[in-house]
Amino acid sequence: MSEQQGVLFQNKERKMTVKEIFFKYFSYFSFFILSVIICLGAAVLYVRYKVPVYTASAQMFVKNDERRGGSVRGSGSNDLIDAAMGGSRVNLDNEIELIKAKNIITRAVVQGGLNMRYFNKGKIRTSELYASLPFKCTLVSKKDSSSGFLLTLSNLTDAGADLNIGKEVSNSGKRKIEWGIPFYCNDAYVILNKNQGVAFNNETPYQIRWEPAANTASEIAGSLGVAPLSQRTTIIVLSLRGSSPERCAEILNNIIQAYKTVNLEEKNRIAGNTIQFIDQRLAIVTQELGGVETNLKEFKTANKFISATNQLQQFMEDYSATDKTILDLEIRKQVIGSIEDFINNPANADRIIPSNLGVDDGTLTALIVKYNELILRKERETPMQAPSSLVIADINNQLGETRTAIRNGVSLIRRRLQDELNNFKTRSSRFQSELIEMPAREKVLKEISRQQSIKEGLYLYLMQKREETAITSSSTISNYEQIDKAVFSYAPIEPDARRIKLFALVLGVLLPFGIIYLKDIMNDKVITRDDITKKTDTPVVGEIGHSKDMQTLVVAHKSRSIISEQFRIIRTNLQFLLGNNKTLLITSSVSGEGKSFVSLNLAAVMAISGKRVALLEFDLRKPRIINQIGVERKNKGISNYLAGQAVDINDLYYTLDDYPSLHIYGCGPIPPNPAELMLGSYMRPFFDALYANYDIIIIDSAPVGLVSDSFTLHDYAQATIYVVRQRYTLKKQLEFVDEIYRTQKLRNLGLVINDVMVGDRYGYYGFGNGYGYGGYSYGNYFDDLESKPWWQRFKWRKNKN
């Protein structure tokens, strides 16, 4: 292929414009309208027959009991007994979870009888009834409380009604019941009482459903909403969704009442437990307090304790007095010792004994006075008496006796003083020991006194708390208060007709988009031009549009039809492929892609131009061309010639009246060995004869994706057309085409796109404008449409598609 040819046949990738994308989806306008109608219709039916959902709400105030430290549950109380018995501050998170507890809801259900429900059974929708019921059902007893029952009533009268157990109303299971008469069903005794003043509606049957309270509580819990009103308040907002607004409001009121009742019961139980605990502790504390007081009494008695301070002061005074007495005795002892030393000293025999030493003994003092008077008398008489005088001798005798008496008296007094001194020293030692032991005894006394104070304080505290608890339990008020009765609105929150219809409208528009887009991404066949350009660089020779005509030969001499013009474009473009060569091979990937159709019409358009054309039906395995032109097949054909049978080549072709220069060589009998025949020795003479008689030779070969016949014919063909059919050829088969193109297994390969549906829906806008093959292109052949109004262009595209 020349460089000019390579440039001419270069594929150029083209992206769809916004306008093309818009018209692609706009071509499905009827699909969009149908989708919107269906979605809106479904939305209207849903709104019409959906059981409406209502909502009710109530507010509950959680009080902060400062005396008890808050509500019953939690933590944070400053009082020991309150903290031990469960006192707390308000914790809204805990309160919210406790309100939603199943036991609270179950209690509310039981108290309000909310597990007995009434319905009006319509043909499509079943509505719940709550107010203005024509009758009331009362459960007398039930053996198995874990299972419920369903009753259906019909034909209500003033006397009774027809009863069916279950949903269905049937004559076989129907029985008559009377108002106020108990009857047995599903292990339960039930009474139905007629409500006076409420009329019956026998157009639709009534249903009565009873469920265990736990099941009803679980159903309510799934629709119950509990949240704080704000962060700065202790108000909790309860909301409930259901099919009956009155029932929802009643449920909320019962839940709050049940929660208040549980709170009161819990407070009373706590008060009772508190009083019991205090009584037990009082008995123990009273016994302990008596023991402590007994110990204190015994300790004081044993230690002669009146007051630690007074006793210590007395001990100090006695100790000081004892020490003073000891000091006086020591002084007196020394004075007596001095007198004794004075008397016993011979040098002091004639000297006066001092009498002012503070001797307090009268006898000794009298003896000293007598002794001193004798000394003075002797001193007066000595000068007047002779040494041997009787007076002096008598005085000396008296002095000796008195000295002896003084000596004996001093000795006696000294011993007496020593005894007293020893006694007082012993007493002083005892005082010292008692003073040393005084802190220890004071410590023991303080410990006993401390125990006494603790027991007395604990006793008084318990007595006070007992009185407070008794007073509180007699006038208990719940920590919770319902601000107002539950309120509800008769306007349902579901279904929201406006929102649902808007959603249906959006869905009706988006659903076709999704389906179309999903169809595009799930499609594995060639649809758009990009599907070809992304898979292969093989040049495109031309395109053949989709035709509703059942005829195979669509090219006529003076025809100006679209397909005829397309084959003329291909004829012009083949000049670049064939050049001065004659033989053109036409193949495809699989059967059904229009290979024979393209071969026949291409041969016809060549013949119209005045060329002598030979069309060879070389698909020896499944020939179709002769059958398509509507002539009777001969007994001889190409297979006979290649098999070496004695046949004249001029006897093998067929002619058409409108195409005298076109000779169609039929296959003949289908051979058992077509591949061997093509490799035989008669192939070359056969083609040499054709080269000599024809300007163009077109070979309709077998699909190259199934058998190797086309590769066998490679040596006899100078150019190859590979037929790709829109919406039929697989995209992955184009990879095989690209491999053939790159490896040149087939010479001068070009593509023909067959059965093309162009326009918005398929996103296929042709290769004519982008490839410069000359002649008309499928894109600009209809350029005059752009000058027409948009509705005419749309009508043309719609009819074309």
Protein topology:
Elements (H helix, E strand, L loop, with lengths): L2 H6 L9 H9 L2 H21 L4 E9 L17 H6 L6 H8 L2 H11 L3 E6 L4 E4 L5 E8 L6 E6 L5 E6 L9 E4 L4 E3 L2 E7 L11 E5 L2 H11 E5 L6 E8 L2 H59 L4 H37 L17 H20 L8 H85 L5 E3 L4 E2 L8 H26 L6 H5 L6 E6 L16 H17 L4 E6 L6 H14 L4 E5 L7 H5 L8 H5 L10 E4 L2 E7 L8 H5 L4 H11 L2 E5 L8 H4 L6 E7 L7 H11 L5 E8 L11 H4 L18 H11 L1
Parallel strand pairs: 15-22, 16-20, 16-21, 17-19, 17-20, 21-22
Antiparallel strand pairs: 1-12, 1-13, 1-14, 2-3, 2-10, 4-9, 5-6, 5-10, 6-7, 8-9, 11-12, 18-19
Helix pairs in contact: 3-12, 6-7, 6-8, 8-11, 9-11, 10-11, 14-15
Low-confidence stretches: 1-10, 66-77, 768-788
So, CATH architecture of the domain at 533-756? 3-Layer(aba) Sandwich
Which homologous superfamily in CATH is the superfamily of the domain at 533-756? Answer: P-loop containing nucleotide triphosphate hydrolases
Q: How confident overall, as mean pLDDT?
A: 78
CATH hierarchy class name of the domain at 533-756: Alpha Beta
Shape: elongated
Structural class: alpha/beta
Radius of gyration: 67 Å
Question: What is the CA–CA distance across the termini?
Answer: 37 Å
Number of H/I helices: 23
The proportion of strand residues reads 15-25%
The residue fraction in helices comes out at 40-55%
The number of distinct β-strands equals 22
Spatial order of the strands forming the largest sheet = 15-22-21-16-20-17-19-18
Domain CobQ/CobB/MinD/ParA nucleotide binding: 585-757
Transmembrane segments: 21-47
Keywords: ATP-binding, Membrane, Nucleotide-binding, Transmembrane, Transmembrane helix
GO molecular function, one term: protein tyrosine kinase activity
